[in-house]
User: What shape does this take?
Amino acid sequence: MAKKSNAERALIIKAKIKKLILRLTGKVKHLKKGIKLKSVWYGNQYGGFYVYPDLLNEDSIIYSFGIGRDISFDTTIIKNHNCKVFGFDPTPKSIEWIKGQDVPPKFTFHDLGISDKSGFCDFYFPKNPDNVSGSIVVQNNIDVCEKTTVKMQSIKDIMTGLAHTHIDILKMDIEGAEYSVIENILDSNASIDQILIEFHDRFVENGKAKTKHAIRYLNDKGFEIFAISDSCYEISFINKNKILAA
Assistant: This one.
């Protein structure tokens, strides 16, 4: 998740409080843990996710889609496990920001995004010019009149290009584009242990229904929820077959 302005942070905190109330009142019943595992929060309050750390080591491969201006999740994993993290973000502000950062040697940045197909597409900037996170999908926070063209690749093409046959963690914070991407990832039969997703159902039309469908699809492909953030935005899934084989 991108580093936010003060105004954006205030809105996020307000939204998280509202979402937490919904959770406590039982109105987000579609978010249920399917398996009990140890979970550890990696990253800061805004850019973090829960991770099951026991499967990670120095040989692990981490894909982090949606960097923005925050690599706290990525640097925490590198610090704790000394493994390689591959960051991806086509956002112009993110690309410029990362150039000025002293990133760990095991962090590699790619100025492209993930999609259900490879190619170039429109990328819409946020309505608030102080914000960083845009999107390739039309949603509540973007300005359809302000856009650029960015490079996108499917998970299959990304893995082929990097010569990877397995991903230990795939993390996505891609501002509403996750719904079409999830199905493409799962249908590709890519070998993945953990999938960490920030769902943006609050931004897109019929968002709750889309999130429910995505969770069912993940479940059908063998992934179960093992951790849910306090905001109920960041949801962590694990391949249950990996746990059974351990």
Notes: The CA atoms of residues 171 and 196 lie 4 Å apart. DSSP finds seven helices and twelve strands in the chain. The mean pLDDT is 89. The chain has one domain: 6-111+156-245.
